[in-house]
Amino acid sequence: MIAIALNNINKYYGAAEVLRDISFEIHCGEKVGIVGKNGSGKSTLLKLILGVEGEYSGNINIKKNSTFGYVDQIPNFTDSCKVVDVLNLAFSTQHKIYEELKSVEGELKVMKEEELARALNRYAELQESYERLGGYEIEERLSKICIGLSFDEELLERCFNTLSGGEKTTVLLGKMLLQAPEILLLDEPSNHLDLKSIEWLEEFIRSYKGTVIIVSHDRYFLDNTVTKVIELENMGCRTYDGNYSKYVEQKREYLMLQAHAYENQQKKINEMEEAIKRFRHWGAIGDNEDMFKKAFSMEKRLEKMDKIERPKLSEDKMKLDLQFGERSGKDVVIIENAAKSFGSKVILKNANLAISYGEKLALIGDNGCGKSTLLKIILNSLEGGLSAEDYSLDSGCVKPGSSLKVGYLPQEIEFKNEDSTVLECFREDICYAEGKSREYLAKFLIYGEEVFKKVRNLSGGERSRLLLAKLLFNEVNALILDEPTNHLDIPSREALEETLRNFKGSILFVSHDRYFINTLCSSIVELKGGELIPYVGNYEYYKEKIKKIENEDVETYKKQNVPQCAKNTEQKLVEGRNERKILLLEGEIEKLEKEIEELKEEMNKTDQYERLRRLYESVEELSLKLENCMEQWMELIG
Question: Which of 26, 395, 462, 588 has the fewest CB atoms within 10 Å distance of its CB?
Answer without folding.
Answer: 395
